[in-house]
Specification:
six-stranded mixed β-sheet, Leucine Aminopeptidase, subunit E, domain 1, 16 helices, Aminopeptidase, 2 domains
Length: 488
Amino acid sequence: MRIQAAAGQVLDVANEVAVVLCPQGDLPDSLAAMIEAGDFAGRPAQVATLYPRGALSPTRVVLVGLGDADTLDAERIRAAAATGVRAAREFGSASIAIGFLGDVGLAADQVGEALAIGLELGAYRFLRHKTGLPDGETFEIEEVTVLTDQVGAVDAVGAGLASGSIIAAGVNLARDLVNTPGADKTPPMLADRAVELGERIASVTVTVLDEVELAEQGFGGILAVGTGSDSPPRFIIMEYGADLTDVPTVCLVGKGLTFDSGGLNIKPYEGMLNMKNDMGGSAAVFGAVQAAAQLELPVHIVGLVPSAENMPSGRSYRPGDIVTTLSGKTIEVLNTDAEGRVILSDGLFYAQRYEPDAIVELSTLTGAVIVALGNVATGVMATDQDLADRILAAGQAAGDRGWQLPLWDEYHDIIKGDVGDLKNLGGPAGGAITAGAFLAAFAGDYPFVHLDIAGTAWLDKPITPYQYRGGTGAGVRMVVEYLRSLAS
């Protein structure tokens, strides 16, 4: 989708479809005359379609509500844009126009960015495995013109559109990866996708360690989890900005379980059905690295993805096994289905060699975080409060929200092992937090934040208008916004 900015009023431009984003309140006479009183009040996500019959320049006018103008923010613009593009797509026009009714009270670049993100995320669909669909169900809008009547604002809106499109592309990359069936994204295949990313974006350097190199270097956590599968594990390194000077270094570590059967502690059918999504953390790292590189942020970013497939076989690691990790610390395996933290132990320890200013880790780690926060917020646990505050603020600004849970010493005590240094399960009480405490043990003294996206990376029922059932790309917008805050 090409999104461009232009000067003018959206209702004055001849187009087959004009999407008009309207705050709550009275419509101007030109529109009110075409709609029955009470049929459209401008409530958030409310939609009405008008046919001007020559009274206005557009052939069709799609009204989308923004809600109260006094409390309007970027998130409601994103949601309205997504609602508008979905409604407009039904009319089969390759080109549409979009604009606001009245002043929105936000900076022009913020408006442009919110519109682009809403449009791109709202237009997303995962149809690659659908066959025989009629043309109407596969139709996509090719071009969107954003109209602004603010003098001198076209360039600023255009800049926001450009950055928003880049961020949305990162989110949609993550969505594509999560939605891809496990058979089509085994650890070697996921590594190939990273190599492709490096080939597309020259500023990103990609290195992949195979199972032989993992064994030689002592990646015991990844190897233990991956040993039961016929698809061998991989460790993926995506680096951007290594040549930059006097910039912060941030390591992004993402859980890359391309499919999780539970291993010998095998999951029931209901628990296994959507486990292609268990690499949502790695998908977020892919998306964030791509977006940061395309935005040319002045930050040194290292994306680290430990990737394995957790499968039952005669070679699988067992409950009761002791795993020696890359750090030398040992893990007492109480349950083979608590495998994400086992592979992340190697990734987090590896991150320390970059002496980073921060380690940001993302993973679909626990069902316990869904019990605590539902599907609305990502669980945030940190060893450094300044880092936590920055991440939380970034998530709020980006509409990719998190909520902080504590990491007090008592939680660290719970995961101390009996026959190993640590045990990979702390019990049902505080399960999301004890998992975070386990991970923190491998991040050293570097500022560390754990983002448990188990509830937000996959949705069976969308919460916002720019979501669909399936992968959401959770974490990408939050992390990119955090990286941008460092850059500024």
